[in-house]
Amino acid sequence: MSATASNALPIVQFRSRPGTVDLAWGHPDPATLPIREWAQACVGALRRYGGSALAYGHPNGPGPLVEWLVDRLGRTDGRAPDPPRIFVTAGASHALDLVAGLLCRSGDTVLVDAPTYHLAFRVLADHGVTLAPTPADRDGIDPAATRDLVARLRREGRRVPLLYLVPTFGNPTGRSLAEPRRAELVAVAEQTGLVLVEDDTYRELAYDGPAPPSLYSAAEDGAVIRLGSFAKTVAPGLRLGWLTAAPALVAALAGRGYIDSGGGVNHTNALSMAEFATAGAYDRHLDRVRARYRGQRDALVSAVHRHLPEVTFTTPAGGWFLWLRLPAPIGATALLPYADTNGVSYLPGTHFFVTDTGDTHLRLSFSLFAPDQLEEGTRRLARAMTQLGSAPEPGRPQ
Ligand SMILES: Cc1ncc(COP(=O)(O)O)c(C=O)c1O
Hints:
This protein is an alpha/beta fold. It has helices at 35-49, 63-76, 92-103, 118-125, 143-155, 179-192, 247-254, 257-262, 267-278, 281-307, 332-341, 371-389, and strands at 21-22, 86-89, 109-112, 130-133, 136-137, 140-141, 162-165, 195-199, 224-229, 241-244, 321-325, 344-345, 347-348, 361-365. The site of pyridoxal-5'-phosphate has 13 residues, from helix 3.
C-alpha cells in the first residue's frame, strides 16, 4: 500500500527516514493495523444500521458505542461510567481541545505534569493560556505542593482551571502515579475546584497486569475529566476517542453549536468501532498488539541494559516509552546529532517540560520496531554516546 496518492500529494502525517531506527515516534506499528477486520466492521455496521450509520449522529455519540464503552470501562477501570457521563470525540487531542475550549479563558494558568505529553502543550496553548509545571519529584506529581501552588497562584489573582496529566503508563516516562498520590491528588481537586484532565490513552496497553483504576473512577463528579482514545489500541487514522466527565459537562459539550449543526462526532467511524468491538475483533486485536508491544518493550529493555549500562530507567508496565536518564555530563540535545549520524533517533527530554529543563533525559518509543531493530538502534545509540564522550568539544559530529 502506498503512502502517497498517484498525484503525489501526501496521505499520512508521518514518514519514516530510510536507514534510521527512529525511536522518536509514538505511533503504532503499521504491521499491526487491523485492515481486514476493520473493513469487515465497516461493512457490518452498514449492514446492521443501514442509513442510520450514514446519518447525522446522536450528539453524545451513537448508542452502540456508548453501551460498549460502559461495559468495557466497567471491566478495565475501577467503576463503569453511565451513559450521560460519556461523550464520543475525535480522539484524545480533540477531547483536550474541547475541554480547554469549555473551561479555559485566555490568560488563565493551566498546570501540566512535568514531564508530560508534549503535544498537549500545543493544544492547550491554542487557548491562550499560560502553562506552568506541576510540582513533582521522582515519584511524579506532588499533591500537597500542587495544592500550595494553586492557592498561591489564585492569591496572585490567576485563574487556574485545569491540571493536565497522563497518570497511567505516562508519556514520556511509561510510569504510573502510585496509589496514595492518586487519592491525594483527587482530594486536592475535590477541595480546590481544580479540574484534573486525566489523559488515559494508554490504559489498555498494559503488559504486566491490569492498569491501576483511573483518577476519574475514584473522584466525585466534576473533579476529573478522563480522555480515552482508540488511536493506540486500534488505529490513529480513525480519529476516534471519548471522554468521561460529569453529566453537566457532557451535556455542555453535546450542546455546542457545531454538534447541533453537524451531529455527533465521527459518527460513522464510531458505529464501525461498535461493530468491531461487539464482534470480538477489538479483544482479539488487543491481545495481539499487547503481546507484540510487550515483546518489543522486553527487547528494548534488555538491549539498553546490555549496550547502555550507564543509563538509568524504570521498566514501564505499559504504554510505549522508555525514559532514560543519561550519565552526566551527557545532554540529550548534544547527543542527538551524533545519534542521527549513527542512524538512530529519539526525543530529547526537553520536549516534555514547559520550563527549560529535561536535557538529562531522553524518550525512546519501542512501538514501531521489531526486537532486532530495537537492538540495533540501541547499539547505534551506544556508539553515539561514545563518540560524544570522546569529542574534543561538544558540537556537531565530524
Ligand atoms: C498521552 C497522549 N495523549 C494523546 C495522544 C494523541 O491521541 P489522539 O490520537 O487520540 O488524539 C497521544 C499520542 O501520542 C498521547 O501519547
